[in-house]
Amino acid sequence: MLPLITGAVEDRSARGIAAAVSRLITAGRLPAGERLPTVRAVAGSLRVSPTTVSEAWRNLTLAGAIQTRGRSGTYVAGPSPPRFTRLGRPPVTLALDLSTGVPDPALLPDLSDALRRAGDGRWAGSYLDEPVLPGLEEVLRERWPFPPERLTVVDGALDALDRIVAATLRYGDHVLVENPTFPPLLDLLQAAGATVHGVPLDESGMDPVVLRRLVAERRPAALFLQPRAQNPTGVSMTTKRAAAIARILRDAPHVLVVEDDHAGDIASAPPISLGSYLPRRVVHVAGFSKSHGPDLRLAAIGGPATVVEQVIERRLIGPGWTSRLLQGVLLDLLTSPEVADRIAAARNAYAERRITLLAALAERGVTASAADGINLWMSVPDQQNAMVTLAAHGIGAAPGAPFLVTPLGTDHLRITAGLVAGGHDDLAGALASAAVQLGRGSGPRGRGHPRGLM
């Protein structure tokens, strides 16, 4: 075992050791359950400091590749399910499934006319055509929160994040994200072998004090954030906070900023972007699934040409481009006054649903946030017991743990408040029964809230 590992190491830095072990695991030469040599044994064989090997082991642990079992030693980890799968639908049919995080279909625009107009064949083109329809690019540039050097369209916001991660990150890179944040992003970063650090949130966005410290200590390669209607908390970054974050990042030119504006036009907050301050270092993702339809599978990426062109070029040996037929549908929707009115009505409806449910929960002493978007982040004494309690009422909710980089001071559930069109009092009563099932502040899970959002 020891000769196998040391023989695979070419770069004796912590990152190089971790990369070599990761390749052995991926190739199956280090199978799941295999016990690894001790840190001192590896360090002695490689003639490096035990601290260097410890850092390599730490990076592999954070990436989920290995796991420590106390005095029993360190082992190759078995395959772990992605965080996203832990948000899956309940195994039984429930009367009201609020675990999904999807928009209300009744509030989406009707695509019939746009599909009919786009179906006349005018979008047919060649493999060598530009990846974005010229008319759509013109409209997107007009809507962009800062002038992007380059712009392209991909198959949804998560596809955009996946491609940006692949184009910009290397194994062992330190990355900063919000805590809590969108679970699939954490899955993507883990798969890339990144070392992830969570920055707590308050009502204005990322905590600048913690952000400044982590930027100085960790020298991250990238910062991922959701500028408005943050999933799961609903927090939107204020202009003042954006300026504070930009001041921190001006002194850290090595940090690439990736903004995921997934809520788009259903967000009530204005489209504030760090690209207004650092346009050559911000990649902005504009999603259209929540506002115009999940099955359009469309999102735009705009920012520095060095990043966006890598995404475009890599796609040439894969899908090539995103359906120009669907791009034509989106162009039709974005230029339709009737659709704009429809989405404005949906935005107002979502705001009313959030406000009404939050007020009903507050009356019952439940701590929750839902400042924007379609989600509500609710404190509970015990996540699992709360979900069981809600299931008894025929209600599904998403567990909070998959959203976390590091634990908060209490457990949480994410509730898709945007799907609650009526019956707020009955729902609030059921949610309250889950939020107080062990008694607020009592028992082993009755912990105080830390600095940051809940």
List its salient traits:
about 450 residues, alpha/beta, Arc Repressor Mutant, subunit A, Aspartate Aminotransferase, domain 1, Aspartate Aminotransferase, domain 2, 3 domains, 8-stranded mixed sheet, 4-stranded antiparallel sheet, 16 helices, 16 strands, about 40% helix, globular, pyridoxal phosphate binding, DNA-binding, DNA-binding transcription factor activity, transcription
Can you describe what's shown?
The chain has 454 residues and is of the alpha/beta class. The protein folds into three domains: 2-76, Winged helix-like DNA-binding domain superfamily/Winged helix DNA-binding domain (Arc Repressor Mutant, subunit A, Orthogonal Bundle), CATH 1.10.10.10; 83-105 and 339-435, Aspartate Aminotransferase, domain 1 (Alpha-Beta Complex); 111-336, 3-Layer(aba) Sandwich (Aspartate Aminotransferase, domain 2), CATH 3.40.640.10. Helices cover 39% and strands 15% of the residues. It contains 16 helices and 16 strands. The protein has helices at residues 2-8, 14-26, 39-46, 50-62, 112-118, 134-143, 157-168, 183-191, 208-218, 239-250, 289-292, 305-315, 324-334, 337-363, 383-392, 424-435; strands at residues 66-68, 74-76, 96-97, 150-154, 174-179, 195-202, 205-206, 222-225, 256-261, 282-287, 299-303, 368-369, 376-380, 395-396, 398-399, 411-415. The strands form four sheets. Strands 4-11-10-9-8-5-6-7 form an eight-stranded mixed sheet, sandwiched between helices. The longest helix is centred in the C-terminal third of the chain and has 27 residues, at 337-363. The radius of gyration is 23 Å and the shape is globular. Mean pLDDT is 90; it is low at 438-451. Keywords: DNA-binding, Pyridoxal phosphate, Transcription, Transcription regulation. One of its GO terms (molecular function) is pyridoxal phosphate binding. Pfam families: Aminotran_1_2, GntR. In the C-terminal section; belongs to the class-I pyridoxal-phosphate-dependent aminotransferase family.
